[in-house]
Amino acid sequence: MSLNITNIKTSSDGAWQGDNPLNSAFPLLILQTILVLFITRSLAFLLRPLRQPRVIAEILGGILLGPSALGRNKQIFHLVFPSWSTPILESVASIGLLFFLFLVGLELDLASIRQSSRRAFCIALAGISLPFLFAAAVSFILRRSGFDDEVPYGQLLLFLGVSLSITAFPVLARILAELKLLTTQVGQTAMAAAAFNDVVAWILLALAVALAGPSGPSSGPLVSVWILASGLGFVAFMLVVVRRVMEWIAKKCSSPAPERAFADEAYICLTLAGVMASGFMTDLIGIHAIFGAFVFGLTIPKGGEFAGRVMKRIEDFVTGLLLPLYFASSGLKTDVAKIQGAEAWGLLAVVISTACAGKILGTFAVAMMCMMPARESLALGVLMNTKGLVELIVLNIGREKKVNKSSVLNDEMFAILVLMALFTTFMTTPTVMAIYKPSQTTRRRSHELQDTSQPELRILACIHSSRNVPSLINLIDATTSAAAKPTLHLFAIHLVELTDRSSSIMMVQRARRNGLPFINCFTIPGTSYQIAASFESYCHASRVTVHHSTAISALHSMHEDICHVAEDKRASVIILPFHKQWTMSSDEGVENVGNGWRVVNRRVLETATCSVAVFVDRGFSGGGLDSPEEAAAKKVCVLFFGGADDREALKIGCGMAENPAVSLTVIRFLGDSCDESDEAVLSEAKVNLAAEDEYIEKKVAAKKVVEELVSIVRGKGFQLVVVGRNGAKIGDMEEHQADNPELGTVGDILLASTATGTSLLVIQHHDGKEMKGKESVGECSV
């Protein structure tokens, strides 16, 4: 049944009135969006074990929805993607693309690019110039083979050269984070070179659009000159005038004025309107609208809080919902079946090999000249060959741009270049993993430099947010005696999840060389600044040496970073925050920071080569422990059932007993049998306990162990209970099914049964080779 396009309605009257919703614009757009999101997210899930960036799934999803796969069934394809819906889908996708390119401009810091090393500039220039030379050769081959003679050689060379020379900066950053290369020499150089490459790519793209010339009645060389001159004037106006205005707005939003909340909303709305106005101006000039949005993103200051606020407002909606529609619209134009015959497939092989050879060889040669090792130079070349969304944007503009009523890139060439972008990006991760493995070398060197004869105390404490800091400081104060503090080294790590969000990439750009995924100091505004300030104050107020840093990584590999750093820093214990945070004075005020962090804790417990403590904070952030008036306020209890973990918990309790601000109670539950190691540790603990401390032994009926355990903890009013994770189970404890296995049986029972105000410290002991020589340290301290 044919549909009259002029009668298309926005919404339908409903199926009960005999109206097909798919013949209306808005219901059809909803269905198309759901289908696109389902396909791309499913592919991203399937490709996750291969450690591929999400852009691969989005490009593949677009191709599968297009004529290459779904389009083979004409009836279904025209039902879901009828021709009249294409302008609507592309308009919505273009809005998402406009704001995404604004986010890309927001990610790029021109100041940091100017500060990049000469090596990064040389590598970036080589990675651009050599692919352009190879593109000239490919363009000549295409012209000799009779490829689209109506398209001038210059325009074809320009678009082909830009597509072959591009490096996708956002995609590269996520690949580097996935491979733990962010702070290696390769990662730092690749990030700097890719940022410079990204700026040059946009300049070349704007140049290509301007020089391609208009196809209307006013076409001519003079018009192209006017377009180019107007574009340069627009950029100058944005970077000189608009940039100062945005600096003033960013400063106003950072001031602690009472009307700041209203001002923030007004200025953010003004900024979003500025994105669209900038896009309109460049479209009016004759350059694509996305170029204006990108330049406007460059004008916003990167150092304050304003850029982060703008990102948080729009990035999830843009990258999660609207941007996949752009990949779908690109896929609808990609027909792999257009690549027919041996000549066409041979051309695909030539384009792929040319793209890889130009980028890899150019980067490799210059990196070797800069005295980088061969493996690092080769890995850098492969990394710089990463393509992504910018590649698709160039190809779509080239396909839409008409010269002599013919597209600069026809359907066959468009499909070839899309497959080239897909292949080069897909090969990056496995190729780099095969030729470059820096983490093993780093860990081997760090072990060679270790000196286990030093009696220093080393604690690795992980932090989710600034709310963890006061309780963590109190815990460290309670756990270490005054005599032990001068030899204590506290490595505090702010754990930051790396996602596909643009805000993650802004954090990545601030990375510095300091171990595997670490930043030398907290340079990110907001939460990280508060954490840094808290630890600086603690460092000055006590004699503890504090090293604070930030780990930026995906959650599925965060445990690797924690364990690697624990090895490199020779930590004797890792303190992990529980995945739930109590925010009020009752159990109703519980905030779950995410199940992903719970998985991180479990994996650290499984793989760590030192002892691990899980800290459940339920109000342990009260006043400082060093003040005399707080001496009676902190009541700590150690529950002992037997086993290596309980012995470690008892040793930590003995260390707390040396602090005059802590009152310690040791409660031993007697079982049917006793271990010699348990008896030895208990005997030593009895001798070391002060007169005001308490030691209790309990013999409880088998069916009332859990009841008695909960009753004791509730009745005594302890602020902190220290238990072993895998202690001996007696009586009805064996029947308990733990909801939180990372806390062990006793910890899970207490978490479910005790009121807010009783915090838990659950200890898992490690007795491997790394812990030898540290047992004497653990007797009085963590």
UniProtKB/TrEMBL annotation:
Transmembrane residue ranges: 25-47, 54-71, 91-108, 120-142, 154-177, 189-211, 223-242, 285-302, 344-366, 413-436
Ranges for domain Cation/H(+) antiporter C-terminal: 635-769
Domain (Cation/H+ exchanger transmembrane): residue spans on this chain: 37-432
A GO MF label: antiporter activity
Occurrences of domain Cation/H(+) antiporter central (ranges): 488-623
Pfam families associated with the record: CHX17_2nd, CHX17_C, Na_H_Exchanger
Localization per record: Membrane
UniProt keyword list: Antiport, Ion transport, Membrane, Potassium, Potassium transport, Transmembrane, Transmembrane helix, Transport
InterPro entries reported for this sequence: Cation/H_exchanger_TM, CHX17_2nd, CHX17_C, CPA2_transporter, Na+/solute_symporter_sf
GO annotation, biological process: potassium ion transport; proton transmembrane transport; regulation of pH
Keyword check for Membrane: yes
Topological category with respect to the lipid bilayer: Multi-pass membrane protein
Record-level GO cellular component terms: endomembrane system; membrane
Source species, domain of life: Eukaryota
Annotated family: Belongs to the monovalent cation:proton antiporter 2 (CPA2) transporter (TC 2.A.37) family. CHX (TC 2.A.37.4) subfamily.
Name of the protein in its database record: Cation/H+ exchanger domain-containing protein
